[in-house]
Task: inverse folding
């Protein structure tokens, strides 16, 4: 796919930025509870092997990028598996990204409803988010990457609530009671891995990278950054709330932001500030998923620079994001979606494509050698 | 008069052109259009019966405003001269500061009827050829009856006409224009206007004062940071106040919350209406103040502000807290170096306010995201408007929200795409121990 204009060209460092943006979304709000549920006191340490798994997925993606220069995921699938399977996979990814965007909008609007806007219709907030996303996505990958990097400081409130909590926590709560439970640890690793979706975006942005040299390196930096944040957050949560309380909170990170105090500001509450700042991070993740879905539709229908895929996918996102569903059902659905969807889409299919490419290489056929 | 011993030309027009007319610039006129242009442009047309061509003698002068202090870009330190309405004077002011043979002045005539002289100025080898050619082609594509100010040109050649953000840097100061040329930018000046355009524009440059390079780096950095914070305040202060008071009062520290609540006692309107009223007052006073003669305008501004604010509070139309918020907004917007940028940010605060009034803090953040996305998609002559912030090369941070001492700014900004990056060679005097190369040990 040739470069079309300046807005379709991004430096290889943008790979890491988009990867961080894609993975972060609401996981720092929802993920800790899920991991503590399965891994107990070891919830913080399982993040490290899970990050290694995510890094492995990124390595597979970058391997494919190098083997198929200037090709996106769907083109690679078509080349390695044939047109019918390629189209089928493309369709599956479009649905996957739309569902991801939809569930992020659903959760975010519920979070707003619970914490800040009790009476505002969720559909109105969802429409606002989708319009913003469509405006950004319609202008190409470069402004998207640029915006993602500009709003990277929105991660700081997470640091601002985590670091002070490390000093007030009881680290004795991190010591496991009884013998180490390998099974729980493995389930914990899997839980964290399933809550880190988005590695597949590397395969969709590949044609736009102006150089592929440091794509893997910047991706690994991004994964390491998120892993450090996640480890610190899990330690802060366990040290402050313990396993039992962390499991009981729907969104334990939000609880942590509620108990954090800014020195010298009596009555000043950080939780709404945290919610709106983390929304900024989530919005970037929504926009990335939107961009991926729109680009996949463009690629499937050979739509060139048409704006229709952007606005078509925006309508689909709005319907999914504003569909009336209760929070408990939503959480059940999100957990199931992540448990089955993320491993397949982030690692399973790219691995299958890599094996298919290796098979082609063994046969000495065309591209991908 | 012909020089002694020199042969006289046989052709009378040749004779006039070469030996008689004592004008600075004598050119041939071969068509009626050129003849009209010569006469209407203030030149002298010499026609000889029986000749199919004529002579144009330009010895323009006429009354023009003297070079005066800048009006909009006032600085405490630095040159005091500013551009005038005469193109030749303005180019001379630039040439006086840049005696470089690579300084190029390409002239155009724009406007079917006004035939305004426009000069494209750049340093060859420093300004990227791509930008120079882009500006040239955009100027040549202008087909309008008249150009009265560079503002016309700006609107006709900008990248996104619908954007509220200015996409050209503007200045009435020759030193600022020269600084831009040295960075690798391109300038455009026109006859009959003292305002030069500079391109490509990046949002960062709108907050840089020429004085920043003249003063010590320490206060400059503090004040530049203040300027950036003030710009953010002018965009967000009223909407943040409305979101906090109307939707999330619990966020405020207890003491502040009590005081704000007490101040709002007896105010007849909801906080958003209150904000809109006082913002309208502010614009009213500002507009009226500008239209009045100098001293009266100043008095009007002060008296109008005091009376409207005080009476508004007493009448229960607005609260004291809101008056303070809007006053902070107004003062903040005037700290912007570029008047237009300050106004744009302050007025963009209105849609941000409405968004915050409907959706509270999330609405405020979403409106700010919209502004951020908008500036992220903007480009000025191919250069992203928000450069150098994301994906910057490390040396580009030397003159952004912070400014390194001039001795540390050895390179031109990478994002402007200059071919010759190096500005400063070797250590500056102090760091070199005050000795020239080769003098060590003497």
Result:
């Amino acid at each position: 796919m040739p470069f079309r204009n300046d807005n379709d060209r991004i430096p290889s460092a943008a790979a890491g930025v988009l990867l961080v943006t894609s993975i972060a979304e609401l996981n720092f709000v929802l993920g800790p509870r899920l991991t503590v549920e399965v891994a107990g006191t070891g919830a913080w340490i399982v993040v490290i092997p899970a990050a290694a798994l995510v890094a492995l997925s990124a390595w597979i993606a970058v391997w494919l990028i190098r083997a198929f220069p200037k090709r996106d995921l769907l083109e690679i699938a078509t080349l390695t598996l044939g047109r019918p399977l390629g189209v089928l996979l493309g369709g599956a990814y479009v649905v996957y990204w739309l569902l991801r965007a939809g569930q992020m909008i659903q959760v975010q609007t519920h979070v707003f409803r619970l914490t800040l806007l009790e009476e505002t219709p969720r559909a109105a907030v969802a429409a606002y988010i989708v319009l913003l996303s469509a405006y950004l996505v319609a202008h190409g990958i470069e402004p998207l990457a640029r915006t993602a990097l500009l709003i990277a400081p929105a991660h700081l409130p997470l640091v601002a609530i985590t670091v002070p909590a490390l000093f007030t926590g009881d680290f004795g709560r991190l010591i496991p009671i009884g013998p180490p439970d390998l099974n729980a640890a493995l389930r914990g690793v899997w839980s964290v891995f399933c809550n880190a979706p988005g590695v597949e975006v590397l395969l969709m942005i590949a044609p736009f990278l102006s150089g592929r040299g440091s794509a893997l390196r910047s991706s690994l930096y991004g994964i390491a950054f998120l892993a450090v944040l996640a480890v610190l957050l899990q330690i802060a949560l366990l040290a402050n709330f313990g396993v039992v309380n962390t499991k009981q909170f729907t969104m334990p990170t939000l609880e942590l932001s509620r108990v954090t105090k800014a020195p010298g500001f009596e009555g000043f509450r950080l939780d709404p500030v945290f919610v709106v700042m983390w929304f900024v991070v989530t919005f970037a993740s929504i926009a990335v998923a939107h961009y991926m879905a729109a680009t996949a539709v463009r690629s499937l229908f050979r739509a060139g620079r048409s704006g229709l895929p952007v606005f078509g996918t925006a309508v689909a996102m709005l319907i999914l994001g504003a569909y009336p569903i209760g929070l408990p059902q939503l959480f059940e659905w999100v957990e199931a979606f992540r448990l089955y969807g993320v491993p397949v889409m982030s690692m399973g299919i790219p691995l299958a494509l890599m094996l298919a490419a290796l098979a082609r290489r063994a046969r000495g056929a065309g591209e991908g050698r | 008069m012909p020089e002694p011993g020199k042969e006289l030309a046989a052709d009378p027009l040749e004779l006039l052109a070469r030996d008689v007319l004592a004008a600075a610039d004598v050119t041939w006129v071969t068509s009626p259009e050129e003849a009209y242009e010569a006469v209407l442009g203030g030149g002298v047309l010499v026609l000889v019966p029986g000749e199919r061509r004529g002579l144009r003698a330009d010895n323009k002068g006429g009354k023009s405003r003297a070079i005066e202090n800048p009006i909009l870009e006032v600085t405490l330190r630095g040159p005091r001269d500013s551009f005038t309405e005469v193109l030749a004077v303005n180019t001379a002011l630039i040439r006086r500061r840049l005696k470089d043979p690579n300084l190029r002045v390409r002239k155009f005539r724009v406007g079917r009827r006004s035939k305004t002289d426009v000069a494209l100025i750049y340093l060859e080898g420093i300004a990227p050829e791509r930008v120079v050619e882009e500006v040239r082609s955009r100027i040549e594509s202008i087909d309008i009856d008249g150009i009265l100010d560079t503002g016309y040109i700006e609107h006709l050649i900008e990248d996104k006409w619908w954007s509220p953000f200015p996409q050209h840097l503007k200045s009435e100061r020759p030193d600022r224009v020269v600084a831009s040329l040295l960075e690798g930018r391109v300038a455009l000046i026109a006859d009959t206007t003292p305002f030069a355009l500079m391109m490509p524009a990046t949002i960062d440059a709108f907050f840089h004062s020429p004085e920043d390079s003249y003063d010590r780096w320490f206060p400059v950095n503090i004040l530049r940071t203040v300027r950036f914070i003030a710009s953010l305040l002018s965009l967000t202060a009223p909407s943040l106040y409305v979101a906090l008071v109307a939707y999330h009062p619990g966020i405020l520290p207890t003491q502040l919350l009590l005081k704000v609540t007490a101040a709002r006692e007896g105010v007849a309107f909801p906080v958003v209406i209150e904000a809109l009223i006082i913002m309208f007052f502010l614009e009213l006073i500002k507009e009226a103040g500008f239209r009045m003669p100098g001293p009266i305008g100043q008095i009007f501004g002060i008296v109008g502000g005091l009376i409207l604010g005080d009476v508004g509070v007493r009448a229960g139309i607005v609260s004291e807290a809101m008056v303070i918020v809007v006053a902070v907004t107004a003062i903040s917007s005037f700290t912007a170096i570029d008047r237009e940028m300050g106004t744009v940010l302050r007025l963009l605060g209105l849609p941000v306010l409405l968004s915050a009034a409907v959706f509270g803090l999330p609405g405020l953040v979403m409106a700010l995201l919209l502004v951020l996305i908008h500036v992220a998609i903007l480009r000025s002559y191919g250069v992203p408007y928000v450069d150098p912030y994301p994906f910057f090369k490390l040396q580009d941070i030397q003159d952004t929200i912070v400014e390194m001492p001039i001795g540390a700014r050895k390179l031109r900004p990478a994002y402007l795409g200059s071919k010759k990056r190096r500005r400063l060679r070797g250590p500056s005097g102090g760091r070199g121990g005050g000795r020239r190369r080769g003098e060590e040990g003497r």
Summary: The longest helix of chain A spans residues 327-363. The domain at 6-173+183-355 of chain A is CATH 1.20.1740.10 (Amino acid/polyamine transporter I).
